[in-house]
Amino acid sequence: MNQNIKLFSIAIATVGFGTAAIADSSQDFTSAESVLLVQHSDKAAMSDGVLTLVGADKNLIMFTDRPHRAAAAIPSEHLVKIWSEGDDSFASDPPNAALVGQQNGNPVSLIVELTNPRASDDDFMFGYKLIEGEEITEIDQAYIVIDDCFICLGDVANLATGNPLDYILNPNDPK
Q1: How many domains does the chain have?
Q2: Which residues contact 114 (CB under 8 A, 6 or more apart)?
Q3: Which tens digit of pLDDT belongs to each residue from 98-154?
Q4: Does residue 174 belong to any structural domain of this protein?
């Protein structure tokens, strides 16, 4: 199992080294697309309705759903900034997330609903509600994958041309 987590870590790190990796920038991105977010941390601690990603990476990895092939690394604080933006914000309709890692060398997979993100030093915290899985207190080498981040893209449907990641990285000057 450790080998699988190492391979996943290498894959995520490879995506994260560039600020944006676009497979085909000529794609038509004028329709609204969803984006998935991935956050890695050394450990996830769960207590009293608070999920703390201890030693969290400073960047989130974002990637679009198929058929588009786009990815970017953005500062984690960006998620805190946009959490309450828009009519269909994460604040009004909290996202689900998969929380995966290991405990005592055994794989752990939980599904949680996330609320109230905040950052502090090397940690990233959320309020959480367990949807699926057994309540535990700690997960090593934790990854959290947040679903359907439409708010991350803004109003992509109104972009005349270009890639939604241009909007994510430069919301005041989309290409």
Answers
A1: 1
A2: 51, 90, 94, 95, 96, 97, 126, 127, 128, 146
A3: 999 999 999 999 999 999 999 988 999 999 999 999 999 999 999 999 987 655 555
A4: no
